């Protein structure tokens, strides 16, 4: 099982500088490599404080220069918002720059305001992604691009930088046909567990399994990539602040699906939603708190959901940078070894 650090790069306060957020991200990635993580992911979002990173491939390029071992990738490139000719060339270039350390996350996107601002019809996002995928796959494996489709018409052209193969592929979102395509290609499928316990994420995993079954694929074809929010601290005040940050993140994530997200300038408002968890529930059930608690929650996820990949986000608290780095270090020293021990035991897909 692979264990990676996820970086959303949010602004938590109006007076927080984007340069500080991005610099902190680089420090976390450096530390993650020292601690023994397998990889690091970088989000793509536009036009809100949810993230100051509109280009995860730029973050990959920058962090590749300050790391030696980590696999690096976008989680995800929202392909309908990008021309595939640029994506395929940049990914090929990154493969050359990093010695093949790239992992490629792609997704359909889901935020109406992003599509509206870019002038891309959100109703067409699945078809656009499917064609873009064709172009990227052909370009990276053969060094040639050319396509005649509904969304793109591209004349035959050679690529100077191509690795001769696709990097490890991860898909977020999509129809059953896209899910089946990813599984047939040996790719992993992202789900975000959010604040849920493992049992609460089973319906999302089962939806993927149903899509695979409909395409004649066995359950073992599922390579599940699990997005999880964790924070390791022995300080009760920090634990409460982490729970409050987790609730804000849950609210923001849901609000970004609105036609017009609730925001003041770029800053997202924290808008309560029906059925949201209480702070007390998060304190009792979240993967936040002492190392033993976090290890127990993640062990439960592994036992129930059988992920092949864990993508762990620790930057949701709004705490100062040194305290977030300290929590990451505690995770690496006290939780990561426990998870590696679990990973050594044989596992099968839980029913």
Automatic annotation (TrEMBL):
SUPFAM superfamilies: Bacterial luciferase-like. InterPro entries: Bact_Lucif_Oxidored, Luciferase-like_dom, Luciferase-like_sf. It holds the Pfam family Bac_luciferase. Keywords: Monooxygenase, Oxidoreductase. Residues 3-300 form the Luciferase-like domain. This is LLM class flavin-dependent oxidoreductase. It comes from Plastoroseomonas hellenica.
